[in-house]
Amino acid sequence: GGLDSKRSFNLMGHIQRLSNIGRALSGERNLNAVLETIVNEARKLTLADGGTLYILKDNLLHFKIFQNESLNINMGGVTGADITFPPVEIKESNVSAYVAIKNISVNIPDVYNYKPFDFTGPKKFDAKTGYRTKSMLVVPLTNHEDEVIGVLQLLNARDVNDKKKVNPFSPDYESLVESLASQAAVVVSNTSLINELKTAHQTLIEARDRAEDASRAKSNFLANMSHELRTPMNAIIGMGHLLRDTSMSRQQIDYLGNIDHAANTLLHIIDKVLDFAKIDSDKIVLDNIHFDLDEVLENLSQLTDADASLKKL
Predict the structure, then answer these.
(1) Helices (H) and strands (E) in the chain, counts
(2) Which helix (H) or strand (E) holds 108?
(3) What is the pLDDT of residues 106-141, one digit of tens each?
(4) Distance (Å, rounded) from C-alpha 181 to C-alpha 252?
(5) Which residue(s) pair with 66 in the sheet?
(6) Residue 226 and residue 158: Cα distance in Å, rounded?
C-alpha cells in the first residue's frame, strides 16, 4: 500500500507537470523552440540521457533535435548546433520508422538484446564515441487527426539515485511520454499552420506593395508624359494665335481654326490623362461648369470634317 501511494503521488506530480508543459507549449510560436522544449521536458520527465526528435515530411524522418547529455551533444532547436545527420528512410527495420508507420510506441530494455529491429546505426555510434546505447523508448507524435507528424526517441533512462546506472523505461513513463507527445504534436501542427499563415500573409503584403509601386510608377509616367506633351502643344497653339495676326485667305483662316481647335482638344485629352493620374493618387478634383451643347456638336463636326471631305461624305 505504501509503495502504491508513493507511486500514485509521483504520477500525480508528473501529470501536473504535463499540464504545465502543455500551457507553456501552447504560448510558444517559434517551432524550433517548441521542438526543443518537447525533448528537454521528455528527458527530464524520464531521466533520459539522450533524446532525438524527428519530423515526418516527404516520407522521410528529418532530424530536428539530437541530444546526448553524457557526450555533451546538443544539436538542433534554438540553442544547439546544426543538424548534420541525413533523414531516415521509412523502413520497418528502423525502430523510429516503424513507430511512424504503425503509430505505436516501442519500449526496448536493451537494444543489443532486441532482435526485431536493425540497430546497426546505434552500434556504429557507440563504437565511434565509446557510448553504450541500452534502453530506448520511441513514441509517435500524433496530431488531433490521429496523423503521425513525427517521432520522439528517448535513450538510456538513468537511475534516480545513481546516474551511472541505466534502467529500462517504466510503463508509467511510457504513458506520460505518450501524453506529452500527443499534446506536443497538436502544438507543433498549430505552430506550423500559424507560421504558414504568417508566410502567406507576408507574401500577400509583398504582392500588394509591388502592385502599389507599379501603380505609382504608372501614375508618375502618365503625369510626366502629359507634362512633356503639354509643352509642344502649347507652342503649337501659341504659334496659331500669332498666325491669326498675319494676312490669310478665308480658307486659310478656316484651316487655322481647325488646327487650333484640334490642338486644344488634344491639350484637353492630355489634361484628362493627368486627371487619371490624379485619380490613382486620390487627388482628383471635380469641376462643375456650364457648357453650350451646340458648341460641343460644332466642335465635333470640325474634328471629323477633314476625314469626311477626303472620303467625299
Answers:
(1) 7, 8
(2) strand 106-108
(3) 999 999 999 889 898 889 999 999 999 999 999 998
(4) 95
(5) 52, 75
(6) 81
